[in-house]
Amino acid sequence: MQNQASPVEILSPTIPANWCPSGSWADVFNNYQTLFLNNSTVNIPGLGLVTPDQIATINQNIQNLQNEYNALAVNVRSGTQSVGSGPGSFTYTISFSSSMPNNTYSIIIEPQTSSTSASANWSWAIISGTKTTTGFQVLFYNGTSTAITGFNWTAQTIAST
Question: Cα separation of 125 and 102, whole Å?
Answer without folding.
Answer: 20
